[in-house]
Amino acid sequence: MATSPRILLVDDEPDLLDLMELTLVKMGLETDRAVSVAEAQARLRQTHYDLCLTDMRLTDGEGLDVIACASALALPVPVAVITAYGNAGNAVAALKAGAFDYLAKPVALDQLRTLVKSALTIPESAQVDDPTRELIGQSSVMQDIRARIAKLARTQAPVHIAGESGSGKELAARLIHRLGNRSGKSFVAVNCGAIPETLMESEFFGYRKGAFTGADADRDGFFQAANGGTLFLDEVADLPLSMQVKLLRVLQEKKVRKVGATAEEPIDVRIVSATHQDLSALVETGRFRQDLYYRLNVIDLVMPSLRDRAKDIPEMARFLLDKLGGADVELDRDAEKALCAYAFPGNVRELENTLERALALCEGRHINAADLNLVPALPAAGAAPGSKYPLQDYLDQMERTAILEALEQTRYNKTAAARLLGVTFRSLRYRLERLGIE
C-alpha cells in the first residue's frame, strides 16, 4: 500500500504551523514539525521527506541553512521558503541557493496548495532519458550548459537566458520546461518584439467581452494559456516601459486582470525570458526597468556562440544534415575546415541555412567548400592582423582587450574593473562569460 507524501514544516510561529498542518492534512498528506534550524536538519537526516516548507528567519539561523542541508542529502529534498511580505531579497537569495519556490507572509492557502501540488509532481528520474542531448556538442562549455539546465529545471526560479541570435535560447528554455515538474503543462513562447504595443495588454492578460470594439467574446491571454506551465518571453528587451510596469505587478502578485475585468485572478506560471541584448546595459540607459530586471534575472544562463565552441561544429553539421534529409551526404575535409574557420554571426541558425543551401548546390553525395559559399564572410586568410572583418570578431577583440587591460590595472578585482570600464558588475560578469575570459 502506497504511503502518503510526507512534508516537513519548519517555523517558530505555532499559529502558522497549525494553519499549514491543517491545510496539508486535509489534502491527505502527512506532516512533521520543526521549530529551529537544528531540529529541521536532524529530521531531514533521519526521515525521508517529499517536501520541506521553511521560514527564512528562525531563532537559531536562516532557511538557507535548511536548504543547504536538504540539497546535500543523498536523495535531495525540494524546499520552499516562506518570506516576509515584500522582502524580495530573501526570496531571490533562497531561489539562488536551490529553493524550489517561495511563499510570502501572510500565507495564502490557495497558493500553499498550488505550490505543494507542484512540488509533489517533480520527476525523480528526469535524467533517465536526457532531453539535454538535443544540445549538440561535447565541448566543455556545452557540457556545463547541459548540467546547468538540468539544475535549473529543478527550481521554480525565473531564469533569464542571454546569448546571440541563433544560439539556441528557445531550445534551452524548452528543455528547462521539459525537465521540470511543469512538463505536463503548456509551454507558451511569446516573441515580445512581434506584438504591437496597442495589443500587448490584451494579448498577455486576455480580455472580457465588450472591453473594446471587436471584443465579442471573453478571451484568455498568454498567462492564462500558460497557467500551470511555463511562459517564455523571447526578446523581452523589446517590451515597452508601459508593459514592463504591468508585467512586474503580475510577477509580484501572481495575479492577472483581464482587460475590462474588475477582479484579478490567481495565476501559476513560471517565467523564462531571453534576449540577445545586454539587459544590464539597457537598465543603465533607462530603457529597461531595474526592478523588473531583478525579477526576471534571478538566475541567468548564457548560451555560447557557435564560434566559441568551434570544435562542436562538425558534430552539429552532421546532426543538421540528417535533419535536412541529407543522411547520405558527407562533408569533405576542406568543407569541414571552412565551417570551423567561419565566424557564424548567425550561429546555429546560420549554420543550418548554410547546409540547406549546400545540399541544394552539391553534386552527388559530397559537399565541398565551394558548395558552402562562405568565402565572402570568411575571415580572409591573407587579411592583415587587426582586420575589421568580420565586424563581430573585431568588436569582440576590442572588448576583450579593454576588459583584460582593466583587470590588469585593478589586479583582477572585478568590482574595481567594472567601475573603471563604466559598467555594472553584472554587466562585466556577462561579458566575461560571453568572451570566455576566466
Explain the overall architecture:
By secondary structure, the chain is α/β, with parallel strands linked by helices. The chain folds into four domains: 114 residues, Response regulator (Rossmann fold), CATH 3.40.50; 162 residues, P-loop containing nucleotide triphosphate hydrolases (Rossmann fold, 3-Layer(aba) Sandwich); 71 residues, Helicase, Ruva Protein, domain 3; 45 residues, Orthogonal Bundle (Arc Repressor Mutant, subunit A), CATH 1.10.10.60. The chain has 19 helices and 16 strands. The strands form five sheets. Strands 2-1-3-6-7 form a five-stranded parallel sheet, sandwiched between helices. Helix 2 runs parallel beside helix 3, helix 17 crosses helix 18 and helix 18 crosses helix 19. The longest helix has 19 residues. It is globular, with a radius of gyration of 25 Å.
Short descriptors:
438 residues; Rossmann fold; Helicase, Ruva Protein, domain 3; 5-stranded parallel beta sheet; globular
Helix-strand layout with pairing:
Elements: E1 6-10, H1 14-26, E2 30-34, H2 37-46, E3 51-55, E4 57-58, E5 61-62, H3 63-72, E6 79-83, H4 88-97, E7 101-104, H5 109-119, H6 140-152, E8 159-162, H7 169-179, E9 187-191, H8 200-205, H9 222-225, E10 230-234, H10 241-253, E11 255-256, E12 265-266, E13 270-275, H11 279-284, H12 290-296, E14 299-302, H13 313-323, E15 330-331, H14 333-341, H15 347-361, E16 366-367, H16 369-372, H17 391-409, H18 414-421, H19 425-435
Parallel strand pairs: 1-2, 1-3, 3-6, 6-7, 8-13, 8-14, 9-10, 10-13, 15-16
Antiparallel strand pairs: 4-5, 11-12
Helix pairs in contact: 2-3, 13-15, 17-18, 18-19
